[in-house]
Amino acid sequence: MRTRLPLTLAICLGGLLGLGAATFRYAEGFSYFSNDPRACANCHVMRPYLDSWQKSSHHVRAACNDCHVPHALVPKLVTKAENGWNHSRRFTLQDYPEALRITPHNADRLQHNCITCHAELTEEIRETARGSGIRGSPRAGDIACTRCHADVGHGPRR
Amino acid sequence: MSQRAKYLVAIVGAALSTFAVVLLLVNVLQRKLEARQTHFEIVKLTEDTVDPRVWGENFPREYDGYLRTTDTERTRYGGSEAFSRLDADPRLRRIFAGYAFALEYREERGHAYSLRDQDSTLRVRMRPQPGSCLQCHASILPAYRKAGGGDVMKGFAIVSAMPWAEARRLVDHPVTCLDCHDPATMALRVTRPGFLVGIREYMKTKGVPAYDPNTMATRQEMRSFVCGQCHVEYYFRKPDRIVTYPWARGLRIEDEEAYYDSLHFSDWRHEETGADVLKAQHPEFEMWNQGVHARSGVACADCHMPYMRQGAIKISDHHVRSPLLNVDRACLVCHSFPADEMKARVQVIQDRNAALLSRAEDALFGLYDAVTAARAAGADSVALGPALRLQRRAQFRADYVNAENSMGFHAPQEAARILGEAIDYARQGQVAALKAARARPR
Questions:
Q1: Which CATH architecture has domain A37-148?
Q2: Which residues of chain A have pLDDT under 70?
Q3: Cβ–Cβ gap A19/B329 under 8 Å
Q4: In chain A, what are the domain boundaries?
Q5: Taking the CB of the first residue and of the last residue of chain B, which one, N or C, has fewer CB atoms within 10 A?
Q6: CB contact under 8 A, A13 and B14
Q7: Under an 8 A CB cutoff, do B336 and A12 touch?
Q8: Interface pTM, i.e. ipTM
Q9: Is the Cβ pair A12, B18 closer than 8 Å?
Q10: Which candidate from A26, A47, A99 shows the least CB-CB separation from B25?
Q11: What dihedral do alpha carbons B122, B128, B131, B133 form, nearest 10°?
Q12: What are the φ/ψ torsions at residue B84 (nearest 5 degrees)?
């Protein structure tokens, strides 16, 4: 009996590992490390957002990650982990409010990415707006680019 | 803890983790399957499948929503509780004097009640009504087809001409799936003959001959047309009692009024004043058409049947109801305000229109008093003609906004304009009656 317990545990852990790996693969876990916009619609809820993105001006140049996720490796992985946990927990438990709204933290990341690409174009407006707070964080009450350019990422609303 | 116990705890832990992973795997599998095939055909649906429960076998999510139209919930001005409109605003008893609406006038309940509530209303039980009513209160298409020997339009004419009680025996269900969906493809379709004729007449004014919504309308248009089949102004054409939508001159209230005037049509003679007046029905489709939502391409279904997610499936909420009871899904998908702010904006619009409506009804009372006094002073119907014609205009306008289910929200400025005219016509009529009283021969 004493000698069989480690073996039993090993079998259990091996099974768990195998099953976990299979689940991860079946749920297309590896796709989340990619920049493929289709990965975002894996969990179905994002389907309308993927669709509307295809109708937007930005779809030829920028996909989901370009706007919603930081570009440097470590912040990128942190953002993916954070949102991945939030999204999969809420979707699995079917516990989320509609209409969907971007969180303040993610709105900051989005704003930062607007500036990353459009730094030169927006230089003047950011300079002249210094003090009104237009440059920085939507969370701090600043005006985000998307306040006016609401349809560049996800196409026109009705 | 002994070595053995540690092993046992680890094994139990691994088992519990495996259990959790299997649950997750099954959940992922279920969502993937939902996304792959959104419904299963368990029963074969045909043009004769009237019972919504049978459709529910194939479409349980939509049917579940439909069943919820039996709910009872109030909004500030409407909702789905059958409260007495006459008790809520006792002025309506005098406004509808001599007409069936003075007997009983209740707030409409949900789709699932549409037939049952017609069975019980005093307007049908105490006043003879034709089979025409059932066009919209029942799922009646198969009955029309049967009565017309395969020809729906012919059957429509036959059943409409029947006494109500006789026609009632031909139908079993209220408004159901079949009325808006093609049973073979589930595509939206319009089936009500009154609408098909009405929209064809209306489209002629736009220079489109022989318009057929079922082949010529876009999907987004259909998402309003299916509602516009019934939520409209109509009258029973004489002498055949055919349900007719007064759209041959356009969809605005003036167009409908001009249409009625051209036929010398009136719904009843006002008991107190003797004016030949009109009763507005529930012109939601027409009113919405004058508003900014229609202009922006927003359909009835966008707000009254907003999309909702269930697992991996996105469906239209078939619990058709006031958007005010579902602000998050109905409004906030387009409007980025908090729900309370959204609701407050709607309520400001409705409160303003309600205040105007109240003034319009008071103005009508001023007109009634003046006409009654003029009659007592000896003025006859000829002398009172101008006042009575103005009553017809004022009364139709006030009632139009009152009967339209949105307290002005479907087209806020249009509703306010109509009520402004109602007040003006009522006061003009009051002045005309005062003049008639003074001018009577001594």
A1: Orthogonal Bundle (1.10)
A2: 1-2, 127-142, 157-158
A3: no
A4: 1-33, 37-148
A5: C
A6: yes
A7: no
A8: 0.81
A9: yes
A10: A26
A11: -40
A12: -75, 120
